[in-house]
Amino acid sequence: MSNTTFDADGITLEKVREYVWEIPREGDMRVPARVLASEALLEQIQDDKTLEQIKNTTHLPGITNYAICMPDGHQGYGFPVGGVGALDAENGCISPGAVGYDINCGVRMMRTNLTYDELQGNERELVDSLFANVPSGLGGGGIVEAGIDTVDEILSRGVDWALENGHAVEEDLLHCEDEGMRKGADPDKVSQKAKDRGKNQIGSLGSGNHFLEVQRVTDVFDGDVGEAYGLEEDQIVVLIHCGSRGLGHQTCNDYLRKIEKQHQGLLDQLPDKELAAAPAGSQLAEDYYGAMNAAINFAWVNRQLIMHRTREVFERVFDRSWQEMEMDLLYDVAHNIAKKETHTVGEDGDQRELYVHRKGATRAFPAGHPEVPAAYRDVGQPVIIPGSMGAGSYVLRGGENSMDLTFGSTAHGAGRLMSRTQAKDEFWGGDVQQDLEEQDQIYVKAQSGATVAEEAPGVYKDVDEVVRVSDELGIGDRVARTFPVCNIKG
């Protein structure tokens, strides 16, 4: 292996420049594939089917420039997690597999004016109270039980519904991607079965890698941007990571089955049927886009309700109002989504409307972009990168190279190193919990020990390295780092 190529079990990557590797176009590939990674991360990325999957995505009709894998990339369903694919919205297609089952899985961070000193001594009470009050785990149980009419309203209006019903304040909407409401959401395109699965899960974390974590800010790397984001060292913040629950999963499943029936011709052209896509302009593409936008709204309301409940828990534990504690939303960003966006494409610099699929990738628009909320437009969009429950997380800002390199995207987390099954073989939940508490003063509470084992810090890539590569490439710049204090999981 020379320094200009990287051989990964039959796939050769060529180094374009530092941290940018390319799988050249061959055979039926429509564009090259690019992997944004250091050699240390590439060594890990090559261990599963990530490279094969990113290569497969280049076969999707209408894909432009190149398929991109982020530094946290790992194997997913058809399309790798950490993948970005921009497909022409007129002549291309939209792929439910390239969005994923958990539509608008994403993260939101809430600031507080509490310091770590003020919180110490309350960790056990706080983790117990959050666990008791924020529904988590598999299956039903949410913060609001709703009939189908309410579900339809949530699907249609997003966080605007939460505002009207006393679960949000105006500022929450202003600090959310798309102000918490996707236009073009069509509740009628979401199946009855999906709505039935969702109606008892509004305001719930679910299971797997979803969590609510109380954190302390350990480092601020950029004082000016940190100030614009309202972040300072030793401050307590809250991070919420979850998505659209059973409703989103069912929606993805419904449309994959429909595509298999209606667009078999397109499916036959693809190297992996899990990349199933509906041609742009087809009725099914329009229907899926309407249903996906509705599921996106559902996920935003889900995170909003959890945040509202968290405010109430803090009020009880610290005996003052959440307003006094300045528990304001910093930002909410999606990382499983396909959005119609206009980007500059090709050597001629054409402006084209594209379905930008980000699966396990975060939008990272730079300063001055009109879609960045007014509060942050001068400094760039906040990007939140959760690490593992033993390694802390990062706040970045959209970097000035993101539009050229990644269609305005960066990584979404640390990225898994091992499967859940492997994790349960290697780790014991009780030991992980005990070690975190004794060594790092991190208090973890979960529905089962198996969940803790599956999410042990050793299961993940090095989030510091993932973020370093993002920062070096100028797609997402480091602003602050946080470290866990309390964590609840499904």
TrEMBL record:
MF term (GO), any: RNA ligase (GTP) activity
Residue positions of the active site: 412
Ranges of compositional bias, category Basic and acidic residues: 180-199
EC class (word): ligase
Required co-factors: Mn(2+)
Source domain of life: Archaea
Manner of cofactor binding, per the entry note: Binds 2 manganese ions per subunit.
Region (Disordered): 180-202
Pfam families linked to this entry: RtcB (PF01139)
Catalytic activity: a 3'-end 3'-phospho-ribonucleotide-RNA + a 5'-end dephospho-ribonucleoside-RNA + GTP = a ribonucleotidyl-ribonucleotide-RNA + GMP + diphosphate; a 3'-end 2',3'-cyclophospho-ribonucleotide-RNA + a 5'-end dephospho-ribonucleoside-RNA + GTP + H2O = a ribonucleotidyl-ribonucleotide-RNA + GMP + diphosphate + H(+)
EC numbers, comma separated: 6.5.1.-
Signal sequence bounds: none
Residues the entry annotates as binding GMP: 209-213, 335-336, 386-389, 393, 412-415, 489
Positions of Mn(2+) 1 binding: 102, 210
GO biological process, alphabetically ordered: tRNA splicing, via endonucleolytic cleavage and ligation
Binding site for Mn(2+) 2: 241, 335
Keywords of the record: GTP-binding, Ligase, Manganese, Metal-binding, Nucleotide-binding
Function: Essential for tRNA splicing and maturation. Acts by directly joining spliced tRNA halves to mature-sized tRNAs. Joins RNA with 2',3'-cyclic-phosphate or 3'-phosphate ends to RNA with 5'-hydroxy ends.
Family note: Belongs to the RtcB family.
Quaternary structure annotation from Swiss-Prot or TrEMBL: Monomer.
Protein name: tRNA-splicing ligase RtcB
Species assigned in the record: Natronorubrum texcoconense
Gene name of this polypeptide: rtcB
